[in-house]
Automatic annotation (TrEMBL):
Source domain of life: Bacteria
InterPro entries, alphabetized: PPM-type-like_dom_sf (IPR036457)
SUPFAM superfamilies xrefs: PP2C-like
Name of the protein: Serine/threonine protein phosphatase PrpC
Organism listed in the record: Pararhizobium capsulatum DSM 1112
Length: 221
């Protein structure tokens, strides 16, 4: 995740495919490349510009990761603008209003729901959901899906499939409230980036102590 003195922020979650070697490192390399670019850019973020940057990053990583594959969610928000969301694979973007339930705003790109929409609780049980039809992969660039979501005083989430598919809705909310779930042990990567949007006269970006320890964070130079 990246914080900057400019209005707005950019966050990214990437999850390496479990079917290949070094995909965990591949996901980390994608995150660092995206964050480093955003921390140093002086150009405004647009959907086309961000997709082109992802294409360049993909080309730059082929040499080190010739068989890399990862799912990802990128979100960019600025004051008085909608949230720009780019995602590919089975990582999802969602919102939590009034701490009641998660409202997922995107759909995973899997073989199980390629031809028709499948409710997430049902999709989570289908073996074919592990077959991705879109991802950040070395063997040919595939453009992400682009979504714009109204920015309101909610909690924004970017989560891997281990979070939305492996945990019950009750455990998801419990985890967001700061409780560790016993059901998480032995599951797929359950990473979730949680961003609280508040209405304030003087916007600022802060991070929890736990987040500072496990996320890759940079401020604009």
């Amino acid at each position: 995740m990246q914080a900057s003195t400019r209005p707005g922020f950019l966050g990214i979650v990437a999850d390496g495919s479990t079917t290949g070697q070094s995909n965990g490192e591949y996901a980390c390399a994608i995150i660092r490349a995206v964050v480093d670019w955003f921390a140093g850019t002086t150009v405004g973020v647009t959907p086309d510009g961000l997709v082109e940057r992802l294409r360049m990053i993909q080309q730059g990583l082929i040499g080190d990761f010739p068989r890399g594959s990862a799912s990802y969610v990128i979100l960019h928000a600025a004051e008085s603008q909608s949230v720009l969301v780019l995602h590919a694979g089975d990582s999802l973007f969602g919102k939590v209003a009034d701490r009641s339930e998660i409202q997922w705003q995107t759909e995973p790109h899997t073989l199980a729901n390629a031809l028709a929409k499948v409710p997430l609780p049902e999709l989570a049980k289908l073996p074919a959901r592990h077959r991705l039809i879109r991802s950040f992969r070395s063997r040919g660039f595939i453009a992400p899906e682009v979504t714009n979501v109204d920015l309101t005083a909610d909690t924004l989430l970017a989560a891997t499939d281990g979070f939305w598919a492996e945990l019950s809705q009750a455990d998801q909310m419990s985890y967001l409230d700061g409780h560790r779930c016993e059901s998480m042990h032995g599951y797929d990567d359950c990473s979730v980036l949680c961003i609280n949007i508040t209405e304030t006269t003087y916007p600022e970006t802060t991070f929890s102590a736990e987040a500072a320890a496990i996320f890759y964070i940079r401020s604009a130079s």
